[in-house]
Write a structure and sequence with these properties.
By secondary structure, the chain is mostly helical. Helices cover 53% and strands 0% of the residues. The chain has helices at residues 4-21, 24-27, 31-34, 39-52, 77-86, 101-113. The longest helix is centred in the N-terminal third of the chain and has 18 residues, at 4-21.
Length: 118
Amino acid sequence: MSLRAPVRFLIVPAVLLNIGTAGSAEDSQPAEAKASVDDAQRTEAKQIFGAQCGFCHGDYGMAAAKGPQLAGTEMTEREVEQRIRNGKPGFMPSFRKSLSDDQIALMARYIKALKPND
């Protein structure tokens, strides 16, 4: 009887265990982590925000102006995307014609990453 058989038996389950958990680290991240924006994206988002949103949502979303403060919104990232894309009749215009889908998604991530000043 060979000693290799038990070694293989122990190695195979360990490999299978690793395969079974591959990719789950990202899936298990909290929503806040998925909403993060890196420095380059933050710069782009702030430029878009300043040009498109700043008039109503002051201080890059950190203060209320004509519209509400966006930092700390309870809307989900998807809801924020839909609000940017479709607007809110009587309150906020639609940006679907002036922003690309990628820009709308970036803005939603940026807004969800904002933390309110307490």
